[in-house]
Amino acid sequence: MYKNIVIYSFLLFSFHGIAQDSHQTLYENINIESDTVKRLKEIVVQKNPANSKTNAGKAGIKAMDLPQAISVISKEELKNQQVATVSDILKNANGVYIMGATGGYQEEIASRGFSLSSNNTFKNGIRYFNGMMLETSGLEKVEFLKGSAAMLYGNVSPGGILNLVTKKPRYEFGGEITFTNASFNTYKPTFDVYGSLNKTKSIGFRLNGAYEKANSFRNNVNSERFYFNPSFEFQLGKNTDLLIETDFTNDSRTPDFGAGIIDYQIVSIPRNRFLGVSWGYYDSEQLANTITLSHTINSNWNLKFVNGIRFYTTDLFSNTRPNSGTNGTVQANGNWNRSIQRTQAKDNYFIQQLDLTGAFKTGKLEHKVLVGADVENFKTQTTVYNSFANYDTVNIFENYNAAVEPVIPTLSKNTLTTAPISRFGIYAQDLISFSEKWKALAGIRYSYQDTESNVYKYSDLSNAATVNNDGAFSPKLGIIFQPTTNHTLFASYSNSFELNTGQNESGTSLDPSIVDQFEVGIKNILFKNKLFVNLTLYQISNDTFYQQSLSNGNTYSYIKVLAGEVTSKGLEIDITANPINGLSIIAGYSFNETKFGTSDYYISGSQLRYNPKNTANLSANYQFKNGRFKNLNIGIINTYFGERYAGRSTRAQVANDTRKLIYLSDFFQSDLTLSYSFNKFTLRSKLSNVFNELNYNVHDDNSVNPIAPRNYSIALNYTF
C-alpha cells in the first residue's frame, strides 16, 4: 500500500509541471571591494537559477541564453540528499543514468543513449578518469551540459558532459567535521577547513578530505578509500587571481562481478552471494592538479589560463567473470570453472587551455564572445596478463567457502598496449543579441589529433602499430527567441567528430565518427520564480558507429567492426519548484530511443544496449523554518528506471557468434532523508531503497551486479 502511495505521489508531481534548465537554489561567490584590494570572497547570494552561469559553458552565458539543456545540482541539494555516489547524484539529472557497472568498482554513466566516458567527465576543467568510484564529499556542485559540447571540448561523445566542481577556498575561517556510520559496517569521517593564510586576506585556502572503510551487502567484499582535496587562491593583484587545486583519491576494493548468467538469464541466487575469489583486489589511484590564472582586463574582458595534469593507475587481480560466452561459461547445473585474470593500467593526462571572454557592441548588436585554444596529451599503458585457466570449480547455487581456495597463482604477461594521443584545438563563439527578444549563438572549433596504438605481444615479441591523423571542424549554431525575460524558445544544430580507437578486422585504423545533433526546447520561469520549466526535443545521428567484433570468437576489445548508423531521438522534461517557503521539488521525465539504422552487423531498428526508453525522477525536500520543528529537514527521492537490454549480442548472425541479449526489467526506487540542526551540530539520516527493490547493473554478459538492498546511513556533523 505504501509503495503505491509513493508511486501515485510521484505521478501527481510529475504531471504538475514540466522541467527546468538549472536546479533549485544556486550559490555563487561575488566580488567584494575591500579598502585596497578587490578579492573573491565567500559571501554568497541567493540567485535565480535560470540566470546562473556554469563552469562547463566556459563563456559565462546565463542558462536562459543557452540553446541547450543544462542541469546543475547545487551544494544544498548534495547536502540535503546526503549523496555518497555518482548514482545518488544522477537521481537529480533526468536523462543521465548508470548504464552499467564493471566489477563493482566503476559506475558507467550515459546520457541520451551514449556513454559519458573519461572524455566526457571533467573535474575543475580537466578531463577526469571515471574508471573508479568517485568521491563526492569534496564537491561544491555538479553540472550536466546535455547534448553537444564538441565545440567547447573537442573529442567528446554526443550525450553531454559531466563537470565536477570541487569546493573552493574561502577567506573567513570555518569548516566542518562529519562522521558517518552506515549499513554493511561502513565508517566514514570527513573534514573541511577553510580560511585565510595572511592578515590582508589575499591568500585563501581550503582543505577537505575523507576516509572510508566498508564491507558490502555482498559476502567477502570490502573497500577502503582515502581522499584529499587541498586548494589555494592567491590574489596577485587587484585584477589577477591564481587558483591551485589538487585532488587525490586512493581506492581499493574487492572485484565483484555479481550474479552468474546461465544461457543469458540472470540466475536467481541470494543477493549477498559472492562468486569471486576472496583475495582479489582492484587498486586504483588518481592524482589531479589544476592551476587556473584569471585576469580581469577591464569591465568587459577577461583572460583565463588553465594548466592541468592527471595521473591514474589501476591494478586488477581477480577471477574472470561468470558469463554465457565460450570462456568462463556457467553450466546449467551451476558448476563454474573459475579462471584468474590480471590487468594493470597507467593513464597520464596533460592540458593547457587559454580562454578570452568579452562583451562589446557593433552598432545595435551586442556580442558576448569566447575565443580559446587548448593542447592535450594522453599517455596510456595497459598490461594484460595471461589468464590462469581452471583455478577451481564452484557451484553458484551453493554457499561459497573462501577457506578452501587454492593458493594465489603467478601469471605471466600477455600484451602491453601503449596509446599516446596528442590533441590541439582552437575555437570561437559569439552570443549575438539582435534585440531584447532575438539572439543567436554561433561557434566553430577546429580539432586535430594524432593517435597511436602499439600492441606488444610477449609470446612472440611482435609489435602491431597503427597511427591516425585526423582533423575536423565542429560548428554550432543556435537561435534564441525570448518573448519575455521569463520565457525562452531555442533551436540549435551542431556537428562534431568522435575519434575511434582500435582497428578493424584487417588491422587498419578506424575512421572517425561524424555526429549531427539537432535540439529544440522551451524554458520558462513561472509564478514569480517559484516554478522553472524546461522541455527539450533532440535528435543525434552518428554515421559511423563501431563496436567490438564478435566474429570467430574474438575477445580483443580493440578489434572492432563498423556497426552502421545510430540515431538517438528523445524528449526531456525537467521541473524545479519552490511553491512555498522551505519546500523544494526537483522532477523530470526522459524518453529516448537509440537505434541502429542500416547495418550489416545489427538488425536495422534494433535498440542499443543498456539504454532505457523511459526514466523519471522526483525529489522533494522540506525544511521547517519556524515553530516547534524549526531546523528539521525531511525529504524523499524517487527514481524510475525503465526496462532495457544488456549483454553482447549482434542481433544478427555473424561467424561463430551465439550470444544473446539479457533482459532487465524496469524498477522504481525510493529513498528517505531526515536531518535536524541544533547549535553547531546537524544529525542526518537516510534510508535508501525503502521498498527493497531488486534489479541489476550489467556490463556485457559478465558483470551482473545487483543494486544494494534497503540500507541506512547516520551522520553527525559539527560546523565551526
**Level-2 CATH architecture:** Beta Barrel
What is the chains' assembly state? Answer: single chain
Count of helical stretches: 4
| Overall spatial form | globular
Share of helical residues: under 10%
What's the Cα radius of gyration?
Answer: 25 Å
Mean pLDDT: 87
CATH superfamily: TonB-dependent receptor, beta-barrel domain
CATH topology: Maltoporin, Chain A
Number of strands: 39
The major sheet is characterized as: 22 strands, antiparallel, barrel
Number of domains: 1
> How much beta, percentage-wise?
over 45%
Notes on the structure:
Strand 5 (107-111) and strand 6 form a beta hairpin. By secondary structure, the protein is mainly beta. The chain has a single domain (2-719), classed as TonB-dependent receptor, beta-barrel domain (Maltoporin, Chain A), CATH 2.40.170.20. The strands form seven sheets. The chain has a 22-stranded antiparallel beta barrel. The chain is globular and about 75 Å long. The longest helix has 15 residues, at 2-16.
Concise account of the structure shown:
The protein has four helices and 39 strands. It is mainly beta and 720 residues long. The protein has a 22-stranded antiparallel β-barrel. The chain has a five-stranded mixed sheet with strand order 3-9-10-7-8. It has a three-stranded antiparallel sheet with strand order 4-5-6.
